[in-house]
Amino acid sequence: MLAEKPLENITLIADCTQLLEWCDVKVLRDNGRIRAVFSLYSDLDFVATAFWSENTSYLKRLMDEFRDRLSMSGFVAICTQEQLEQLQSLCKEVDPTLEKQMYADFETELRCECKSEPVRMTQDDSEELKELYRVCGTPAWTPTALELGPFYGIITEDYGIVSVAGVHYMTHYGSEIGNVATHPDHRRKGYAEACIKAVAEDILQRSDLAILHYFANNLAAQKLYERMGFSYSPVEPIFFVRAEI
Q1: Whether 136 contacts 183, CB under 8 Å
Q2: How distant is the alpha carbon of residue 111 from its chain centre?
């Protein structure tokens, strides 16, 4: 059911498949049909959710089952316009930030001007990656992410790993590229572009879509992904939402 519109539901698809070990997923059925699905992450330092629901009433029934955890400090979610409106009718506070979604598929010809060749990262690189993410301000990364899908990095003789890109999850229907970081001393060299291209090409051998999300005001990211050949998603608008019930 979710896979009929993978670009709308890709995070929830991942929660119900690859990420199920780290998610509490509840499904609401009525008259023999699935009416709503709600996922709550259990492995993060903050409360994150993903959901799909036919209407607000069904969504409320599932959210009520998680009310104690949702009300502790608020939660975040990536939402379509319809999902945002559902949350606005159920939550006392909703703060949406406009995002953009882009994607590549097996017909996409990805481009990259950088001549440096990324290499596949392994668990042996985890400590060096941890330090790179710390320097770049993304300390929430953990080595378990390397088990979810491909990570590619640029390695220099003097500095070691200076740029990396990976995934947030991988499913047959689509995979999200993420965990992108470049050391401040090595930016504007095309390294991130090369790493993203390597990850996307690897993903598309096993997944229908390679998906990217970025905040709509991040014009540098927009220009980069356009130049590389990613297409804009038909799911528009999409929001990163912070909410409190």
Answers
A1: yes
A2: 22
C-alpha separations of 143 from 125, 128, 179 in Å: 9, 10, 11
Quickly count: other Cβ atoms within 10 Å of residue 157's Cβ.
5
Alpha-carbon dihedral of residues 13, 14, 20, 23, nearest 10 degrees? Answer: -90
Do 179 and 168 form a contact (C-beta atoms < 8 A)?
Answer: yes
Residues near 224 by beta carbon (within 8 Å), at least 6 away in sequence: 192, 193
244 CB neighbour count, 10 Å cutoff: 14
pTM score above 0.90: yes
3-state secondary structure of 174: coil
Q: What CATH number matches the domain at 2-99+239-244, 3.30.420.40, 3.30.70.890, 3.40.50.300, 3.40.630.30? A: 3.40.630.30
Q: Which fold has domain 106-208?
A: Aminopeptidase (3.40.630)
pLDDT the model gives residue 73:
83
Q: Please determine, for residue 141, whether its predicted confidence score (pLDDT) is greater than 90.
A: no
Domain boundaries, the chain: 2-99+239-244, 106-208
